[in-house]
Write a structure and sequence with these properties.
Structural class: alpha/beta
Distance between the termini: 53 Å
Radius of gyration: 20 Å
CATH superfamily: Ribonuclease Z/Hydroxyacylglutathione hydrolase-like
Helix content: 25-40%
Number of domains: 1
Shape: globular
Largest sheet: 6 strands, mixed
Number of helices: 9
Number of strands: 13
CATH class: Alpha Beta
Bound molecules: zinc ion
Length: 317
């Protein structure tokens, strides 16, 4: 099975995103790049270099529905005519009718984010939408955990690896234990467990970091030999990266616990102390990071927690 990486530029801080072409019938791409002219050019160039064109694509598989990964799914599908789009049903970013913003808003209020900051985050969020087209419910097929994507000479196993987002999926070629992992595994940076509503009960927060740790362990059980991430180069030593991630989570957790004063604090206040002077998308990611670590510390019995008016307050034990 030929897996070809196509590097596609994004207008985002993270830099280029990796699209993976599975050059075997049915011709499949995993992720697409954002909806920008530059990304379209890079994607088409990459396909051409491998001997294909957009109209050859039969399947568009999304690791998750962030704009840099799903942005071109609709236009590729339209140009390829009969291509089918696959995404896990817990993803919401690509949906027409996403309630995400309102649900996010209540999560942000509970995390203690001030109103003017929520308004700024909303403007940023609306600005992001230009980088991806939305899909109606009937326009995509679900990726099912443990299912298989069949190819002419083999298959990729679908493994639901929530954490970065609730519906993030990885794809494993069991014959040689190669993994395509989207933003679940990134070589140089620890992926952010992004603040998300729980797909089962959107009034709750998705336990992103706890789920992420389970996903990392699950991928480890496949003993990966090679991992293709959503950004940057491939990972050859999964165990080393796994241990590094776990250490980073532990270090961050002890840092976060130290930032909780006797009288208690909100996730927003912790985020401000952890990442002073951050702006735009990083302020949202900072809150995500603070919430994720505070929640994990609370669930592990290392912090107290109470609801005070509209906000949640973490306290030392
Ligand atoms: Zn992502
Ligand atoms: Zn990404």
């Amino acid at each position: 099975m030929r897996i070809i990486r196509i590097k596609v530029p994004t207008p985002f801080y993270i830099g280029p995103v990796n699209v993976y072409l599975i050059a075997e019938d049915p011709i499949t791409i995993i992720d697409t790049g954002p909806k920008t002219k530059e990304a379209v050019v890079a994607l088409k160039d990459g396909l051409r270099a491998a001997g294909f064109k957009v109209s050859d694509i039969r399947r568009i598989v999304l690791t998750h529905a962030h704009e840099d990964h799903c942005g071109l799914a609709r236009s590729v599908r339209d140009e390829a005519k009969n291509a089918e789009v696959f995404v896990h049903e817990w993803e919401t970013g690509h949906r027409h009718s996403r309630l995400e913003h309102d649900e996010h808003k209540s999560l942000l209020v509970r995390a203690g984010v001030p109103d003017d900051e929520i308004a700024a985050l909303r403007r940023m969020y609306m600005g992001m939408r230009q980088y991806a087209d939305a899909f109606a419910e009937h326009e995509y097929s679900p990726l099912l955990d443990n299912g298989e994507l069949q190819f002419e000479t083999g298959s990729l196993r679908i493994v639901h690896t929530p954490g970065h987002t609730p519906g993030s999926c990885s794809f494993i070629r069991e014959a040689d234990r190669t993994v395509i992992a989207g933003d679940c595994i990134l070589k140089r940076i620890t992926p952010n467990p992004v603040l998300s509503p729980d797909p089962i009960d959107p009034s709750k927060r998705f336990p992103s970091l706890a789920e992420y740790l389970v996903s990392l362990a699950r991928l480890r059980s496949f003993a990966p030999t090679l991992v293709y991430g959503g950004h940057g180069d491939e990972v050859n030593d999964y165990d080393e990266l796994f241990n590094r991630y776990i250490r980073a989570v532990q270090e961050r957790q002890s840092q976060v616990i130290k930032l909780v004063p006797k009288e208690g604090t909100t996730a927003w206040e912790v985020a401000q102390k952890m990442f002073p002077g951050t702006d735009d998308v990083h302020r949202f990611l900072a809150v995500s990071e603070a919430v994720a670590h505070l929640d994990l510390a609370h669930s592990e019995g290392k912090l107290g927690y109470e609801v005070s008016g509209p906000t949640e307050v973490y306290k030392p034990l």
